[in-house]
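FIELD: query
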Amino acid sequence: MLLPVIYWNKELLLLLLLLLLLLLLLLLLILKYLYLLTDACASLDSPARTARVPTILVIRHPVRMKESANG
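FIELD: result
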């Protein structure tokens, strides 16, 4: 009678561990994006460093994109 409860607790523990792992991965991605964001801003201040701007921050003008697509 106690055995299904133990198995259910193991499954619940495994599910919580998986959820914690996914949250940790999401936090790591957010911290990596914030590091890239601050690194890009810091490299704009100092000319000696090369700018590593994330592709999310690169915004192109729609009109210029249409002109470059047409040739």
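FIELD: remark
The CA atoms of residues 37 and 54 lie 7 Å apart.
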